[in-house]
C-alpha cells in the first residue's frame, strides 16, 4: 500500500519545510526564548511523530509492536533535534511530545482499514503542512525577522491551495471506490447460512452483494458458505486477527481460490466454481490444524 496517494512532489514540499524549520531553529539559537523553544520542539515533535507513525502503521505489515517502536522513535528524534538548540526543557518537551504523537499515529495507522488509509494519510499530511507553516510564521514573529519574499508572496498560498485541491481530487476517487464497495462492510454471509428460507429476492441479491468471510486467530466466520452454481460472486476475506491468514480451495487440478490477507486488511476475488462441496483452509503453517477450516457448498 506504500504511502497512499502522497506524491513525490508533496514529499519534497514537506522535506523543504522540515529542513527550513530545523535550519531556522539552529541558525537563530540564543535569539529564541525558552518558551518559543519549547513550543517549537513540542509542535514539531508531535506533528512529525503523528504523520510518521500513521505512515508506518499503515505500511508496516509486521504489526503494531514494530509500528509503535518506529513511530515513537521518529517523533522522539524529531522533537529531540528541534529542542536541542534551546534548553534541556525544550529537549524534554519535544522528545516526550514526539513519542506521544508517534504512538498515537502508529496505533491509528494500524487500526484503520486499508481502503481508508490514503484519506487518513492525506489528511495528516496536510495538517502537517499547515501547522509547519504556522510554526514558521511563529518563529519569524518571535525573531522579528521579516519573512522572505517568497512566503509573503501570495503565489505561495495559491500553490498550497492548488496542491491541496490536486490531492483532494485524488481523495474523491478514493471515496468513490469506497462508495462502490459499501456492501463489503456489511456481512452478507449471514444470509448464506439460512438456506431453506431464502426467498427468490434474497437469492438475486447475491449478484451484487459480496460474500464476506472473516478470519480471526484461528477460525473462519462463517464456517459454511452456500453459493449458487454458475453465478460469479465476489468473495471478500477480511482479517480481524492479529496475524496474517489466507483462504485456499484446492482440488485435484490444483489451486482454485487463493486469498491472502494481512491483519486488519481485506482482499477480494471474483470467483465462480462448478457444483460441489469444497473445503477451504488457511495454508499458514499450523492454522488449519488450529481450526481454520470451512466449507463452501456450490449448488
Ligand atoms: Cu491463518
Helix content: 40-55%
Number of strands: 9
Order of helices and strands: HHHHHHHHHHEEEEEEEEE
- Would you tell me the overall average pLDDT? 80
What do you see in this structure?
There is one protein chain. 32% of the residues are buried. The protein has helices at 8-27, 34-59, 64-83, 88-111, 117-142, 149-152, 154-180, 182-185, 189-193, 200-205, and strands spanning 211-216, 219-221, 224-227, 233-239, 245-251, 254-261, 266-271, 276-281, 293-298. β1 and β2 (219-221) form a beta hairpin. The protein has 2 domains: 8-180; 185-298, Cupredoxins -  blue copper proteins (Immunoglobulin-like), CATH 2.60.40.420. It is α+β, with helices and mostly antiparallel strands. The protein is elongated. The strands form 2 sheets. It has a 5-stranded mixed beta sheet. Strands 2-1-4-7 form a 4-stranded mixed beta sheet, with no helix packed on it. Residues 245, 282, 284, 287, 292 line the site of copper (II) ion.
Question: What is the strand and helix layout of this fold?
Answer:
Elements: H1 8-27, H2 34-59, H3 64-83, H4 88-111, H5 117-142, H6 149-152, H7 154-180, H8 182-185, H9 189-193, H10 200-205, E1 211-216, E2 219-221, E3 224-227, E4 233-239, E5 245-251, E6 254-261, E7 266-271, E8 276-281, E9 293-298
Parallel strand pairs: 1-4, 3-9
Antiparallel strand pairs: 1-2, 4-7, 5-6, 5-8, 8-9
The structure holds copper (II) ion.
Copper (II) ion (CU) binds next to loops.
Amino acid at each position: 500500500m506504500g504511502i497512499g496517494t502522497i506524491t513525490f512532489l508533496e514529499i519534497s514540499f514537506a522535506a523543504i519545510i522540515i529542513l527550513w524549520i530545523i535550519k531556522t531553529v539552529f541558525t537563530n539559537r540564543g535569539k529564541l526564548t525558552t518558551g518559543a523553544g519549547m513550543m517549537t520542539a513540542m509542535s514539531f515533535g508531535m506533528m512529525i511523530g503523528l504523520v510518521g507513525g500513521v505512515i508506518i502503521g499503515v505500511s508496516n505489515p509486521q504489526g503494531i509492536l514494530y509500528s509503535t517502536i518506529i513511530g515513537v522513535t521518529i517523533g522522539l528524534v524529531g522533537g529531540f533535534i528541534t529542542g536541542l538548540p534551546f534548553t534541556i526543557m525544550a529537549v524534554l518537551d519535544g522528545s516526550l511530545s514526539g513519542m506521544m504523537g508517534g504512538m498515537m499515529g502508529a496505533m491509528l495507522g494500524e487500526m484503520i482499514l486499508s481502503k481508508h488509509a490514503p484519506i487518513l494519510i492525506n489528511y495528516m499530511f496536510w495538517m502537517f503542512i499547515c501547522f509547519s507553516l504556522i510554526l514558521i510564521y511563529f518563529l519569524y514573529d518571535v525573531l522579528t525577522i521579516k519573512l522572505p519574499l517568497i512566503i509573503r508572496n501570495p503565489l505561495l498560498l495559491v500553490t498550497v491551495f492548488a496542491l491541496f485541491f490536486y490531492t483532494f481530487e485524488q481523495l474523491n476517487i478514493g471515496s468513490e471506490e469506497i462508495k462502490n464497495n459499501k456492501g463489503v462492510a456489511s456481512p452478507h454471509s449471514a444470509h448464506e447460512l439460512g438456506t431453506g428460507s431464502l426467498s427468490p429476492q434474497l437469492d438475486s441479491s447475491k449478484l451484487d452483494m459480496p460474500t464476506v468471510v472473516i478470519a480471526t486467530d484461528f477460525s473462519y466466520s462463517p464456517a459454511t458458505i452456500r453459493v449458487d452454481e454458475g453465478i460469479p460472486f465476489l468473495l471478500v476475506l477480511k482479517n480481524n486477527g492479529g496475524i496474517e491468514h489466507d483462504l485456499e480451495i484446492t482440488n485435484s487440478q490444483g489451486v482454485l481460490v487463493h486469498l491472502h490477507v494481512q491483519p486488519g486488511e481485506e482482499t477480494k476475488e471474483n470467483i465462480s466454481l462448478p457444483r460441489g462441496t469444497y473445503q477451504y483452509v488457511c495454508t499458514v503453517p499450523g492454522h488449519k490444524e488450529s481450526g481454520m477450516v470451512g466449507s463452501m457448498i456450490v449448488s
